[in-house]
# Entry
Amino acid sequence: MANPSRPVSGFEKLDLSPEMLRSLRRAGYAEPTPVQAGVIPAALDGDDVVGQAQTGTGKTAAFVIPMLELLDVDTKYPEPQAMILVPTRELAMQVHDEFEKLAHGSSLTCAAIYGGTPIRRQIERLRKGANAIVGTPGRVIDHISRRTLKLHDIDMVVLDEADRMLDIGFRPDIEKILRACPEDRQTLLLSATVPPPIEKIARKYMRNPQRLEFSPQKIAASSIDQYYFTVDQDKKFELLDKLIEREKPKQAIIFCRTKRGTDRIYEKLSKKYDKVGVIHGDLPQPVRNRAMSELRDGKIRLLVATDVVGRGIDVSTVSHIVNFDIPQYCDDYIHRVGRTGRMGADGVAYTFVLPDEGEELTRIEMRIDTLLKPAAMPEMDLVAPTARAVEIELDPESLREMEEKKAVQARLGRGRTGRRKRGL
Ligand code: ADP
Ligand code: MG
# Structure
């Protein structure tokens, strides 16, 4: 029964079931985010969708809501009808939780299938039947080959963090899995970034996908203040230390390039600060899980991490991102920085740039169409004098990039020619 005193929410316009509307209210979701308003109707119509929207804009619910609406409620010991593939175990758990939250009050279930935990329990879980599964590719393939997971009933496949799932690391696994699914299934791809070559590959696995793009211009959320420091390698730790002292972050994630580097920073930080945690791909799964839940509970204030947690993880209390090492791929920058400033909260990101990493920084700035602001730490000498004198010989490729960079600067209405003089 419509209640005249309550305004019709945006979700009610999306033609959702009363059960779904009830659980959305219960979750506290009053209005659909733009990506939800776009993807949900298209998915309910049965269309394939490539959905791109910045981090923290509710892409998970954008596919979970139509999935819940389309799943069969009546089957008693169901084979899965929907499958979500994600790049990390942490993300598998998080998507699983979002599914359970939005499935509240219905009998629909989701099994999480990921590596690093005993396979026995997952086999038991799958035997009981699940309407949907969310998993990492390796473990999903493991279950397919053990015949503990059957995909013949799959109607919908979602690739979350699609660009990562289709890059060269995961693509062979994804191909194997998709070949095991019925051809007439529906396929949804979601990501903050979908570079053109990846989109081309994605189209091979889809049928006339609708491409839905939201705020493509400002890829990193605009509520994030983004700064860079030019700093020598051997000054980075001292700079990090001073930055923590100065900013007193409520919660920070410090991203490093390598697992060893991550461990080293963790050890040094924990000598001085309380509530320091570490997470990277070599740590046993229970340790990784504990770090994530301690981050969520606020028991960890400073988390040192590799890009393992840079993907999709939603912890809204993170106030600071520090890129201790500049990310190797510029899209990783977007994903890392997207860990803060979520759902309109404010965040700040600092990127440490070595004197010879100016090109990397420029590439990031071109990708996000925003210039990072230079930051200062007056009481420190960040760059040794010799490094300042280095002149770079430009090859034709770099010259082309410089031209593009100039075009970006012109568009942004700001000059950038002083950079090398300022230490790069
Ligand atoms: P993304 O995948 O785009 O990075 P997530 O799906 O992780 O974003 O969602 C980010 C946060 O926003 C989550 O905490 C989620 O519960 C919340 N959220 C999602 N949709 C809504 C909505 N319509 N209203 C309010 N909060 C929402
Ligand atoms: Mg996500």
Confidence is low (pLDDT under 50) at residues 1-5, 387-392, 413-424. The chain has 16 helices and 14 strands. Residues 29, 31-33, 36, 55-61, 312, 314, 316, 342-343 surround adenosine-5'-diphosphate (ligand 1) (CB under 6 Å).
